[in-house]
Amino acid sequence: MNDGSLQIKNRKIHMIGIGGIGMSGLAFILKESGCRVSGSDVVEGSIVKKLRRKGIIVNIGHDKSYIKDQDIVVYSSSIRMNNPEILAAQEKKILIISRIELLKTVMDGNIDVVAVAGTHGKTTITAMVSLLLEEAGADPTVLIGGESPHFGGNAKSGKSKTLVAEVDESDGRFVILKATHIIMPNLEKEHLEHYQDEAHLANAFRKFLAGQSSRSTFFYKVEDRRLRKLAKIFKGKTVSFGFSEEADVYAANVKIDTFKILFDCFKRGEKIGRFALNMPGVHNVLNAVAVIALGIEFGIGFDTMKRALSGYKGVKRRFELIGDVGGAKIVEDYAHHPTEIKATISAAYSLKPERLITVFQPHRYTRTKSFYKEFSASFAGSDEVILTEVYPASEDKIKGASSRSIYEIMLKDRSIPVKLLDKDKIPKYLSGKLKRGDLVLIMGAGDIGGTAPKLLQEMKKRNEKQISKGAR
Fold it and tell me: Out of 3.40.630.10, 3.30.1490.270, 3.40.1190.10, 3.40.50.970, which CATH number does the structure's domain 109-310 have?
């Protein structure tokens, strides 16, 4: 890793909210670069434990005593300015910067910077690109918004001057970032806790793209009208991708099999070759085509691209198979937007389960308030839907923004059986009714992730009891 305009090499850096996916990735590579890293967070999760194993001091809770002689204090977007560690750093006149400012410094120190932005699919594309560049021998520094089995987590410190980073648009600060290659698979209304409306969000991306060099390349999905508009004003090179023959790089002849997809890829009408993905979901073909378009730009050969994509093993909580007990499968996914839910259910449906039971935890009150009608219509293909209460993240409760608003629309519609259950009651409820051939799809960006292993445990107990009874 190299440093940009802000000198961070060998500095003492304290990170408030260090357990977040974006902050922790930066913490890992800072530690690898020789920095003395410490941090704090409110929850002692698996990421915090990994940070500690790397020798990073992580305190649980926020306290001014954690601020001592650090050179820089970094805060995540969820941290407010009245945080005691922020106030202590101000008193000691320690430099205070946001996570995005730190990310910019890390990005600016590299020659080839791939930034993956947009509304959906960023984590998958970032992980795929990272694996492709790794397979091509580029040894990139990697910052992924999820945990990849290929890199043993969400970050990797490479020795080259190539970096791949997932760009989070949630608070609008990303506009300061600079990249040589930008990939955007979509642009859709999202993060209305920050953006006034869709136009405000689109304007932020317009500002981001306007700030890029004329030597940069913008890869965009040709079927997305918003992205086509942005491509017209981009001053650098543009490369379109998608399913349409209008695209510079496109997929065709898609064949879907169980946990496998085959497709041909073309560049301006000329066939590049046939690729395989060992994961379901037509949306992942689009993700792969974006990666192929980037690979062509980097001069990576077909065999390397084919090997990287066929060997891609996904990211934690992105259509992750948690377990299979007695022929009933449990799959977990991070989907928390109506469009993502539809794509994930489509992927699950392609596996042809006897019954598809969908569990969903809405994420943020603002998102629930904005999309409750869209959420209620997004579960088509499910044989039953189980809703649980909203995961608030850092938000205060908003009147009328609850899972019940989704539940009541679905109950009135009657097209899909729906239940509203406390999260802790879901494992026992499901374990008592699941049969061979069923697939349980557990979705959400909050703490619903803990439900899948609990359900798996309940199912194993039930299965053991049945085996024991049969033995008698």
Answer: 3.40.1190.10
